Amino acid sequence: MSLTNTILTQLTTKTVSFFVGNVKGLENLKFNGPRIIIANHSSYMDHFVILYLLKKKNPNQAIYFLTKKEAFEKPFSRWWHLSLNSISVDRRKNAMSSMMVLKDKLITEKAVVVIYPEGTRTPTGNMYFGKNGAESLSYVTGVKMIPIGMHENFDVLPKFSIFPNFKKISVAVGNSIQIPKTSRKCLEVNKLDYFYSVN
């Protein structure tokens, strides 16, 4: 990790720690080797909550976030996202090149990659249907997925907001999911279980 990445990670995780309340299944983030994190997406806080939780259990693990290409268009935003190991994806075109980069990170670096199956932050707090890019990546690489459900993060810092509301975010971390090479049909229900498991 670069010095800039280390400094930004420490600053952001320290800040976001004040907003994280109850966490179920945190022990599921203690693992060896690569993983694909799939999570719901409703807030600017999402990246940093996941980063904070991963660093608590795997402080030396490289972590990459699949991020919309629009976040790289302005100079400061581009620097910020690149410094935090974000990988650009064009959501309006074929995202295959970005998925190939993630595949390389998983296989070559044994890294963690974070993907939001919804593809964008919800503007209402209601979760969208997910796309199957993370499933395909897991199927091709054989790397397990870990579902993370975050609750109340929309109320803390929703889309288009600048200043956060001080509320506690609840998080549920699911067990690792291994997609059988013979079938992927059972995954759609299983991967969403933890998105709604925190009261």
Short structural summary:
This protein is 33% helix and 18% strand. The protein is α/β, with parallel strands linked by helices and 199 residues long.
Descriptive overview:
With 199 residues, the protein is an alpha/beta fold. The N and C termini lie far apart (36 Å). A 7-stranded mixed sheet has the order 1-7-6-2-5-3-4, sandwiched between helices. Helix content is 33%, strand content 18%. It contains 7 helices and 7 strands; from the N terminus they run H-E-E-H-E-H-E-H-E-H-E-H-E-H. The protein has helices at 3-16, 46-57, 75-83, 96-108, 133-141, 153-156, 187-190; strands at residues 20-24, 35-39, 63-68, 86-89, 112-115, 145-151, 169-173. Helix 1 (3-16) crosses helix 2.
In DSSP terms (H or I, runs of 4 or more residues), the helix count works out at 7
Please identify the structural class as seen in this structure: alpha/beta
Beta-strand percentage range: 15-25%
Task: Tell me how many strands there are.
Answer: 7
**Termini Cα gap:** 36 Å
Strand ordering within the main sheet: 1-7-6-2-5-3-4
For the residues shown, what is the average pLDDT?
84
How would you describe the shape? globular
Helix content: 25-40%
Radius of gyration: 16 Å
| Uncertain segments | 187-199
Order of helices and strands: HEEHEHEHEHEHEH
SSE layout and pairing:
Blueprint: H1 3-16, E1 20-24, E2 35-39, H2 46-57, E3 63-68, H3 75-83, E4 86-89, H4 96-108, E5 112-115, H5 133-141, E6 145-151, H6 153-156, E7 169-173, H7 187-190
Parallel strand pairs: 1-7, 2-5, 2-6, 3-4, 3-5
Antiparallel strand pairs: 6-7
Helix pairs in contact: 1-2
